[in-house]
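From the pipeline queue, job 12 of 40. The input is one protein chain; the requested action is below.

Action: predict structure.
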Amino acid sequence: CPMRISPALCLAAVLLPAPALPENPHQPYAGLQTRDIAALSSQDIAELEAGRGWGLALAAELNGYPGPTHVLELAEQLQLSGDQIAQVTQIFGAMQADAKAAGAQMIAAERALDRAFRGGDVTPDQLSRLVRHAAAARGHLRLQHLARHLETRAVLSQEQILRYQVLRGYAADPCASVPDGHDPQMWRRHNGCPAQPATQDN
């Protein structure tokens, strides 16, 4: 080190990690060319093959239409009746079967589109047909998930729907505190809050 710089500073400079080099902004898709299907990752394909939501039902999930998967996971907290559990289980089973079939159609459509480009001789007419097919497959898959959210909501009470919103983190818990000017018992009853344990006088 130069004499003007203390040994401690020299040591610190040596020990500090080198700054990370920025990624090449011109190569955001580098490595993706090895995918089986360019537009789908291996995780995407696994999600579709398993019939999972893949984020296609967020329009319902985030706007007060619970999904059957999470309703069953929260069955105890939502205090579902036996009949409700049976109905939602049936909805979930139908969703799984239909979503797996629709997911397979979407994978096949994306694979056909990918192969057309890999062949190097795709025509405008062929491209139009393949893109419409892929879009229709995606739309059909999305419909399967959204429709089951619609069916699930019809099984639940308004109190259970509100509780679901809280449990999933989409809304504040109305049972956490009673707003000023409201009767505590009426407020808790109206919002489906669990009964408070009775207090005993000493």
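Job complete. The mean pLDDT is 85.
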